[in-house]
Amino acid sequence: METSIRLATADDMAAVHNLVRELAIYEKAEHEFIASLKDYQQDFSSGIFEALVAENSVGVVGMALYYMTYSTWKGKMLYLEDFVILRSHRRQGIGQLLFDGFLEQARQKECRLVKWQVLDWNKPALDFYEKYNATIEKEWWNGKILFETGV
What CATH number has the domain bearing residue 106? Predict the structure, then answer.
């Protein structure tokens, strides 16, 4: 089954939202997934994020959601927020197509680096990134503050 990679459109936001829900379930954190489809639609339309989708005859089977950010030490950076393939379509090379597409977006935007997070227990993801000779930083800790009102 042939899969193509393309830039997401507003019409893809329901599929993207569903894929992120699948990722949250996989990471045993569905209860933390509070962004609504309306949030996705508004934020995509506002240019807050971009996405690539993997599509075949079944429909959208994967996505990479990313946005531009800045490294004060390196310069322009593209941040990969989420990257997920439907469970039924994994191990078919779709992840490689999507990740390569993401890297190409970074090159086109003249970024100096790309960054993402990966859970320490997600061995398949760690193995995947190792094939790209990615540096997996273990010395930095994440910090966050969640605003309940969505501010």
Answer: 3.40.630.30
Query: Which range marks the domain in which residue 114 is found?
Result: 4-130
- The catalytic position among 26, 70, 79, 129 is 129
Our count of domains for the chain comes to 1
129 in active site: yes
Residue 100 lies in a domain: yes
Per-residue tokens: 2:
């042939």
Q: How far apart are CA 6 and CA 62, in angstroms?
A: 11
Q: State the 10-residue block means of pLDDT for the chain, 151 residues long.
A: 94 97 92 96 98 96 97 96 92 94 97 91 87 88 76 52
The model scores a pTM over 0.85:
yes
* Distance from the Cα of residue 136 to its chain's centroid: 16
| Segment (H or E) for 81 | strand 75-85
> In this structure, what token pair is assigned to residue 105?
């977006």
Q: pLDDT tens digits, residue range 61-78?
A: 999 999 999 999 999 999
In a domain, 137, yes or no: no
Non-local CB neighbours of 27 within 8 Å, separated by 6+ positions: 119, 122
